[in-house]
Amino acid sequence: MPRRAVEIDKMGARATQQVMLTPAQLIAARAIVRWSRHDLAKKSGTSIETIKGFEWGGSDPKMGTVLTWRRALQTAGVIFIEDDGVNGPGVRLRDSETSQRGKR
To answer: Domain spanning 6-102 has what CATH number?
Structure first.
């Protein structure tokens, strides 16, 4: 089964921007802050099964759920990198001082 990305309309001050979250980004984001699915579920108020279903490519979560995951991980120090047409989407970590807030 092909892996899907979820596109999110994010309203900016001037324009609407498409933001994506792929299953691989979610897995990598959890790994970079050393969170289990349980940790993300607890910090985002979503279920472990919903996270697992998206990561395995079998589900299409609501946009609100995806935004909740992104916010929780961003609070922990994750920066989501969008596909720029040359390089694919990814994640990276803010500097270690600011990312300490999200650790377990």
So the answer is: 1.10.260.40
